[in-house]
C-alpha cells in the first residue's frame, strides 16, 4: 500500500516562502524608488558651449549671443569655452570624447566637415557618425572685397584678368581649407581661371593686405566687414549668395553674375554634441535653440552681425551635414587641395 509522505504543512511553508519573496521584492522597490525620484531633470547645472576659435571672432560672438538666450529657456547658464587651434579640431575632438550627457556641446562651423577631408591621416572622426547633430542656426554669407583703390571695379574685371594672365590675380585667406580659400577655389573652377592663393594666419592680416592693395581680393565674412566698407577702405564686388543682401542692396550676387550655387557653400553655424546624446536631451537643447532664434531681438542681432538665420532641427541637420560633406569632398578632391 502506497504511503503519501507529503507533509500537511507543505502548502503553509510554500505560502510563507512566497510571502517572504514578495516582501523582499517590495523592500527592494522601496529602496530604489527614492533614487529614481532623485534623478535631477536636465539640465541641473551649467551647459558648456565649446568654440574652436579665439574669443572675439565671428563664431565666438554668435555663441555668446545665442548662449544667453538659450540659458533663459534651459534655466541654467550656457558658458562659452574657447578652445582654439588646429582649425577648430582641438575643440571638435574634445567634444567627441566628452560624456554624452548634454553638458558639453560645440558650435560647429565649416571645419567640422572639412578637417577630416583635408587631413585624413590626422583627423580620425566621422563628422556625422561620431556626433549627435542638435540644430543648425545660421549661415554666414561671404562677400568678395577689394581695396578701395583697386583697379577692379567689377567681379568680371577681376575674372577676365585672371583668365588672361593665370596666377597674376592674388587672393588672401586665413589659411588652407578655410571658408575663404574654398570659396575662391570654387570661383576659380566656375570661371575657369587660375589665381594665386596667398594664405595668412587669420582673416585680419589677409584683409590688411587687401586694403593696402598688395593682395588683389578675398572672400570675407559679412561679420566685421561693414566698418571697413563704410570707412571707404574696401569695396564689395559681389555677395556670394542667390539673393541680394539688405546690407548691400546695390551689390550684385554671384548668381546674378553667372556663378550660381555659392549659397550652398556658405559657412554653416550649428550645434552638435557627442555621439549617443539621449533623445530627450537633444529635444530640450533643440527647443532652447529654436526659442532663442524666435526672439525678434536675437534675430535682429544675428542679422546685424552678418548672419543669415537658417534653422534646421536634429534630423534635418543630420541629413544636411551629410550632403554638405559630399559637396566639400567633391571640391577638395577635384582641386587637389592639401592641408598645410
Q: Can you put this structure into words, describing what you see?
A:
There is one protein chain. Residues 1-6 and 29-37 have low confidence and may be disordered. The protein is of the alpha/beta class and 340 residues long. It has 11 helices and 11 strands. Helices cover 43% and strands 19% of the residues. The chain has 2 domains: 47-139 and 267-335, D-Maltodextrin-Binding Protein, domain 2; 142-264, Periplasmic binding protein-like II (D-Maltodextrin-Binding Protein, domain 2). The relative contact order is 0.16. The strands form 3 sheets. Strands 2-1-3-10-4-11 form a 6-stranded mixed beta sheet, with helices on both faces. It has a 3-stranded antiparallel beta sheet with strand order 8-5-9. A two-stranded parallel sheet has the order 6-7.
Rg (CA only) = 28 Å
> Which secondary-structure class do the elements indicate?
alpha/beta
Report the order of strands and helices. HEHEHEHEEHEHEHEHEEHHEH
CATH H-level superfamily title of the largest domain = Bordetella uptake gene, domain 1
According to DSSP, the number of beta strands is 11
Form type:
globular
User: What is the beta-strand fraction?
Assistant: 15-25%
Mean pLDDT: 87
The domain count comes to 2
CATH architecture of the largest domain: 3-Layer(aba) Sandwich
CATH class of the largest domain: Alpha Beta
Largest sheet: 6 strands, mixed
